[in-house]
Amino acid sequence: MKHTTIALALMALSNVTYGVSGQITDTAGQPISDASVSVAGSRIQTKTDADGRFTLNTADSNATNLHIKAPGFSHETVRLDATGSEPLRVTLHRTMIEQIDVTATPLHASAMESAQPVSVLAGDNLRRKQSSTLGETLKDAVGVHSSYFGPVASSPIVRGLNGPRVLIAQNGLDVSDASRVGPDHVVATEAMTAEQIEILRGPATLFYGSGAIGGVVNVVDERVPSSSERRGAFAAAYNSVNEENEASFTYTGGTERFAFHVDGFSRNGDNYEIPAPAERMADADQYEEPEELSEGILENSASESQGFNLGGSWLLDKGYIGLSYGRLERLNGIPGHSHDHGHAGEHHDDERMADKHDEFEEASVLSDLKQDRWQLVSELQLESAWLNGLNTRIGYTDYEHVELENGASGTVFTNETLQVRTDLLLEEIAGWRGAVSLEGKKTDFAAVGEEAFTPPSRTDSFAIGLLQEKQTGDLLWQLGARIEKVTINADPIAWEEEEHGASEEGGEHQEELLVFKELDFTPYSASAGVVWDFAAAYNAGVSVTHAQRAPSSAELFSFGPHIGTGSFEVGALFRLHESDNPHFHYNDDVNEEVSNNIDLSLRKHAGDIGWVINLFYNQIDHFYYERNTGLDSEAITGHDHEKGEEAGHEGEHEHDHGALPVYVFEQADTVLYGLEAQFAWRLSEHFTLDLWGDSIRAKLRDGGNLPRTPPVRIGGRLNYANNAWQAGFGMAHYFDQKDTAELETSTDGYSLLEAELSYALPSSFGDMTFFLKGSNLTDEEARVHTSFLKDRAPLPGRNFSIGVRSMF
């Protein structure tokens, strides 16, 4: 009896000191099963059982807060210092604003719990919006537009910023392609096999470096599995607008100690149908002569792509270590870019090119992309006085894409990147928990060929960052800082005396070698934010960020024809002297961009009505942007690109590009500010309504507007759900954009309507959802103001998609 009493006393003491238990219910008192309960700032977590009950061992942590979440409910944070030994009873409130955790930062974050605006696209919502490019997949997300280089290439534009300011990441590591160099280059990642896509709006430099001064888009998949829990998905669809067939699958499984993952996709489509002639006069509201155009078809827009990922992980008692390999291939035409010339270049020996000859016979210019990507990931829980976890990510990417002209190699773009990032998760001290991040990246980028507009370059960077947060009552404080060292080297270029200006008397070109000196930058960033739960179901967030960005190599060293965008690009190291004989001087006096950004957010996150409103103001000094000089390349270089002076050289092509408009990268002080809003309302048991909208103004502080600024837009969707049936009808309206830069034309507004009907049929593979979807139902002509091809490539016409998808 004595021993039994002692044992019971020890068990009770253990529950008080080392563990916590309780029950999770909804507002009606019904238990919530499979809810996640975790110790804030650590890996210690568990799930609730069928009765909503849980027991969590906190022996190995300095636990002060529990974080509780469940699908369809608002997240809750519970302090442990006031709970005593009594079991917890926590009530979760249903929400209309979906809350999904973000993996893009080492600390916990979701749309309602971050001072900085974040959003996540996942589950059925992601499957419904998937497109052939990342930009088109995300174009309806609040604050995100698409660069839309025709249907074959488009990148996300976050709050009016893109290119080297918005980092595209795959599982937290740079995707390492050429899409940041030009909008005609495809983002080398695939949404069809993604688990979720995370968007961090505004400066996200604290853990991603100066290349994320405008935001981060992180594509998350399970290529390195963290558990062996069996799960999978597959999808297949047909799109009428380009007779496209697409299919994908993912599967993760394994044993107690080993997990494996495999996924793959394939997509094959012809040229897109469009509702009007492709090309419009830039200076008149009329079309070119009909015989010069292919009305109803966007030439050179056919594409095929395929890829796969293989990965495996060794599962440890407190973490895992895994490795993956991925292969991505894509062959596509380049819309608005067609040559009518012969060639004497080396033929590109590619079986895919031969297989696709019939489909691409009308396209003289193609892009052939290949990427091999390795990732090593480990996440380990530690038992240390200072550290509770160690996360390591190593990525190696070998990227190449070749521009093919009539089957011969034109310009070859390569990007070889090695990136290592280690996050040290710190034990909680005085209520503060956080992480230290160490990151190194080495990038070797080259563009080789007659149309290489920037020289080969190497960029090395090393950084250290710190992020801390603390919960004090109704306030969640978030602090961060990062310092970075960036070094850029570029190969010398042939610098002709005549290239300083067109020769008035003609004569021979005097070539000399221009040797660039090594450029060093030390950008740093700091931020402070707070989230205030000022009332039940409401909170407000404020975030202030100072961030700096080192310029990219293309912004600095470019000097040549960028045929994809139909321009002659000149980097910031070359200063234009405008006179009767315009010419350039080399000047290496360049600066980092400096951003001072403030975000204000107001949110309602529980009940039948939910909403989020964000206001932002971003002042960026020394902002790099491409200014249209009004000059053409013949006037600048003395060369007539139409004549192709180098055509007689063996292995080179005779081009017919004509004189190209000259765009110069310059630095100026700018201001960007705007509004983002989303609203969700449960109208009844079966009907819900979603409304959203955003606007942005992007101005030069000395007067004028930045080019290609997204227009104001609003949208909405009415949803119906009843057992296995779901339906939706949506509309998005883009207003006229008349706030244009010098020499930039305005763009008319347009409205896009869509509808979808689906039915879920139970099967041994989980619910199989059959769907029918219609896009651009009114077949409206729509031209994207943010696109370099707005006057040559409208959005696709009316499209019907039919397919099936399943998650199991």
Automatic annotation (TrEMBL):
Protein name, as recorded: TonB-dependent receptor
Organism whose genome encodes this protein: Microbulbifer spongiae
Family: Belongs to the TonB-dependent receptor family.
Annotated ranges, domain TonB-dependent receptor-like beta-barrel: 366-777
Membrane topology: Multi-pass membrane protein
Location relative to the cell: Cell outer membrane
Domain TonB-dependent receptor plug as annotated: residue spans: 111-216
Principal location class: membrane
Keyword Transmembrane: yes
Keywords: Cell outer membrane, Membrane, Receptor, Signal, TonB box, Transmembrane, Transmembrane beta strand, Transport
PANTHER family documented for this protein: TONB-DEPENDENT OUTER MEMBRANE RECEPTOR (PTHR30069), TONB-DEPENDENT RECEPTOR NMB0964-RELATED (PTHR30069:SF40)
Signal peptide stretch: 1-19
Name of one Pfam family that matches: CarboxypepD_reg
